[in-house]
Amino acid sequence: MMLASMTAKPVPSVEIAPSVLMPMLSFGITMQHSLFLALGGRGLDTAFDYGDKYQAELGRAVATSGLPRSAVFVTTKVPCCASSFVKDDVYSNHCHARRSPEETAADVAHDLSVLGMPFVDLLLMHWPCDSTADTVATWRVLERLALDGRARAIGVSNFNASAIESLLPHVKVRPAVNQCGFSVAGHSGIRYRNQTWGRDDATLAACRRHNITLMAYSPLGSAAPGGVPRVLSDTNVRAVAAAHNRTAAAVALRWLVQQGVPVVTQSDKKEHMVDDLEGVFSFELTDSEMARLAAIR
């Protein structure tokens, strides 16, 4: 039986596709999804490349939560191969060779099987392939699976502005979401592994132009130069946090959600989960504070 929720108010949501509401805060790669649900969280995020252990744990957390499946928003991702984006990524050693659309469909079937679910709420292409043609071929699979009821919405991840512009002329279903690393001090386009991975203001602008919801992973700066300590120790972040009697983490997350950017975060600590779920949505930054945080490089 699920523990009683400790969160007084539900996390706000955003409509990413017709009648598809995604929480503004989701919880990512971890083994603590049951605790997150018990504390009132409702958005869970995983991926084929995170491995079966994490996907199976997420599935068990939902199944044993006492919540109806419709109350939990589940996101998973599948790779687009071949891709030099992930050539050094420990999760993606299988992605050097071109993979067929049938293999992509098999990846989705594997995800659903491990999760123990007939569908997910959001299915993402984890990164673009090296060629537009291969990216489009993979996207066609996601479109078909959405029509078959395997995903309520589909989208992309790690697509920069140019990758979005290259894909859109070929789609029948517009991506609902683009999940990228984005944070205070981590939105300037500084290159990462020879790619921007969409971690820049130009990508946010492109998403807004095409009515695609940008979702931020690494929202506390782990994908930014200097990492999380760079963000949470910044004097400007700490000054704003002190002014609102909030944590630096809550301020960094608030800077995103106040722009309409949902976040996916993670922690093994209950107090961090509570701060994410309660502290982020209980105050508002001023325009000058938003600009102050945006200027951090």
Query: Nearest-angstrom radius of gyration?
Result: 18 Å
Helix content: 25-40%
CATH class: Alpha Beta
Number of helical segments with 4 or more residues: 11
Determine the CATH topology: TIM Barrel
Number of domains: 1
Question: Which superfamily, in CATH terms, is the homologous superfamily?
Answer: NADP-dependent oxidoreductase domain
Q: Explain this structure to me?
A:
It holds the Pfam family Aldo_ket_red. Keywords: NADP, Oxidoreductase. Belongs to the aldo/keto reductase family. This is NADP-dependent oxidoreductase domain-containing protein. This protein is α/β, with parallel strands linked by helices and 297 residues long. It has a single domain, classed as Alpha-Beta Barrel (TIM Barrel). The chain is 37% helix and 16% strand. The protein is built from eleven helices and ten strands. Helix 3 crosses helix 4, helix 5 packs parallel to helix 6 and helix 8 packs across helix 9. The longest helix is centred in the middle third of the chain and has 16 residues. It is globular and about 55 Å long. The N terminus is likely disordered.
Q: Summarize this, please?
A:
GO terms for molecular function: oxidoreductase activity, acting on the CH-OH group of donors, NAD or NADP as acceptor. The chain has helices at residues 33-38, 52-63, 101-115, 132-147, 161-167, 201-209, 227-232, 235-244, 248-257, 270-279, 287-294, and strands at residues 13-17, 20-23, 25-27, 43-45, 73-78, 120-125, 151-157, 177-181, 213-217, 263-265. It is α/β, with parallel strands linked by helices and 297 residues long.
